[in-house]
């Protein structure tokens, strides 16, 4: 690590590291970035992460937090079936952690940006006596037929998910891979009716689709893919409850016609596991069918910020 010489030294250190990108006419170093933007529609998302709420030091490293701060935004773009293009970063750095901490944080952001070819266009840097606060805004372009929204689910659709759920606090929430490639492939090649990423919890985020689409759902308990971390919990809650409500899995839930779902399950167009967990129904609400055939209502279980 090198000494940065305060805020402006840190900005100059970042500027030297950020490579040229075809989306940028003018990047870090001026009052505003200048972008080349031919797309007819633009996707914009922003997430703020706060020390003590979204991560703690330890166990998190600065690099992990940097990667997560960008990845949660990339996951939102993935959920719209979009391609991320550029990002701007606003960070309030704790003074007591020093310049090396700030550099390591940026290196984590930079690593994730390179992985998904995202241009770092600029942002703002401050310091204070409080904890780390980092906010990243990502701009992207929709693919295929246009943005995939939450509001397009139809009765008869199959509900599919990527990956597995639950137990993210054990480490996954710091080291997940946003499903950008999967979301793009789906949007470009298939008629996806609705999609969302799982940040608050499988049940909570599925309810967002149901509410926006004005439909209901039937889930099957024995089809919910449960992560190894959730299976290993011993806190009085079942692994299924963890899978439905823990959140920060950053997997995709999407709905498609039965014909499209069956084709996807046969062809397996990407390496990420793909599972059919239920159906969209016309009747409102969300129901879970258990192994014995009984059914119970599933509320919008998951994380909520208390105001």
Detailed description of the structure:
- The mean pLDDT is 92.
- The radius of gyration is 20 Å and the shape is globular.
- The chain has two domains: 6-142, 60s Ribosomal Protein L30, Chain: A; 150-297, Alpha-Beta Complex (Phosphoribosyl-aminoimidazole Synthetase, Chain A, domain 2), CATH 3.90.650.
- Helix 2 runs parallel beside helix 3 (98-115) and helix 2 (62-79) packs parallel to helix 5 (180-189).
- By secondary structure, the protein is α+β, with helices and mostly antiparallel strands.
- The chain has helices at residues 6-17, 62-79, 98-115, 172-175, 180-189, 202-213, 228-231, 239-245, 258-267, and strands at residues 24-26, 34-35, 43-50, 82-94, 119-128, 133-142, 158-162, 194-197, 216-220, 252-256, 274-281, 285-289, 295-297.
- The chain is built from nine helices and 13 strands.
- The protein has a seven-stranded mixed β-sheet, sandwiched between helices. A four-stranded mixed β-sheet has the order 3-6-4-5, covered by helices on one side.
């Amino acid at each position: 690590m090198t000494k940065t010489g305060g805020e402006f030294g840190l900005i100059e250190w970042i500027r030297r590291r950020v490579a040229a990108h075809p989306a940028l006419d003018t990047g870090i170093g001026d009052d505003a970035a200048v972008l080349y933007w031919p797309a007819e529609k633009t996707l914009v998302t922003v997430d703020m992460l706060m020390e003590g709420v979204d991560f703690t030091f330890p166990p998190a490293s600065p690099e992990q937090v940097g990667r997560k701060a960008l990845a949660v935004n990339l996951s939102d773009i993935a959920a719209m079936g979009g391609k991320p293009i550029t990002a701007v970063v606003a960070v309030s750095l704790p003074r007591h952690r020093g310049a090396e901490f700030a550099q390591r944080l940026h290196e984590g952001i930079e690593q994730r940006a390179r992985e998904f070819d995202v241009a770092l266009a600029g942002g703002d840097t401050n310091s204070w006596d409080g904890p780390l606060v980092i906010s990243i805004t990502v701009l992207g372009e929709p693919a295929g037929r246009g943005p995939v929204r939450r509001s397009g689910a139809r009765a008869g659709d199959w509900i599919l998910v990527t990956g597995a759920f639950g137990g993210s606090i054990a480490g996954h929430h710091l080291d997940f891979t946003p499903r950008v490639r999967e979301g793009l492939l789906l949007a470009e090649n298939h008629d996806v009716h609705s999609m969302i990423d799982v940040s608050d919890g499988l049940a909570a985020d599925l309810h967002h689709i149901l509410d926006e689409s004005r439909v209901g759902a039937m889930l099957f308990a024995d089809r919910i893919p449960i992560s190894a971390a959730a299976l290993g919990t011993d806190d009085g809650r079942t692994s299924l409850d963890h899978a439905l409500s823990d959140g920060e899995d950053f997997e995709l839930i999407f709905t498609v016609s039965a014909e499209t779902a069956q084709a996807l399950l046969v062809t397996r167009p990407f390496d990420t596991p793909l599972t059919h967990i239920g159906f969209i129904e016309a009747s409102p609400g969300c129901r879970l069918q258990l192994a014995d055939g009984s059914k119970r209502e599933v509320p919008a279980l998951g994380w909520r910020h208390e105001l």
